[in-house]
Input
Amino acid sequence: MIRIGTSGWSYADWMGNFYPEKAKPADLLAIYSRKFDTVEIDSTFYGIPKKSTVEKWYDSVPNNFKFAAKFPRKITHESDLTGIEDISDRFLQTMSGLKEKLGPLLLQFPYSFKPDMAENLFLFLKSLTAEFEYVVEVRDRKWLDDRFYDQLREAGVGLALLDHPWMPKPEVMTSRTLYVRFLGDRKLIPDNFSHERADRGKELEGWKGLLKALEEKTDDFYGYFNNHYSGHSPATAARFIKMLGQ
Output
C-alpha cells in the first residue's frame, strides 16, 4: 500500500491554487481528502486535540483515508522521556478516536536529542501499548547505527527516513512500514507556499529507487511532503504519486 500526502492541510497560501479561493476552513480537510488518501497531522505536535475535533476529522474523510499524527512536543521536545505516562496515555486515548483511519504515530525528536538518551528512548518505546503503530524520527546522524536499528526492531517501531540537508538516507527498515518525510531546507524556502519554487525531480528519482530497493521488506509506504521541500507540497506530492505510477 502506497500512501502519499502532505504535512498538514490548512495553509492560507494554498487558497486559490489547491483549494477554492473562498473555501471554508471547516471544509478544507474534506476537499483535501478528494485528492490525497493520507495526511500527517501537524497540530498534535502543539497539543492534544479535543475529542470532538478528532471526531470531526474522522467524519470528514472517506473510509480508505489514513491519518498519521505527531506526538505532542511536551513528550518529544520538553521532557527526558520520563514521567510522561499520563500525557502519553491521554494522547493515545484521544487519537484512538480515529479508529481504523489512524495510521502511524510519529515521535519527532529535535536536533538536540542525542544518542545518550537511548536508554530512556527504548524504555519509553517498550512502555507504549502495542495497539498503535509508531515511527521514530531523529535528526542527529550519530543515532544511525546497527545498535539503534536493532533496538527499534526489538520494540517493533519504524524508523522515519528524511529528505533533509544533513541527514543520510539509509536503506534500512526496522518495521514493515516505510515512512518518509520530505522536509527540505527552511533557510532556502522559508515562506510563500503558493507554488513550487524548487525542482526536486532528481531527489524524487532517488527516493523512487530507494523504495524499489526496499520493496520486498515493505508492506506499507507513507510519504509526507512539507511546504519547505519545494514551496508547495500538494503539487510535489501529486508529482511523486505520478512518478510512482499511482
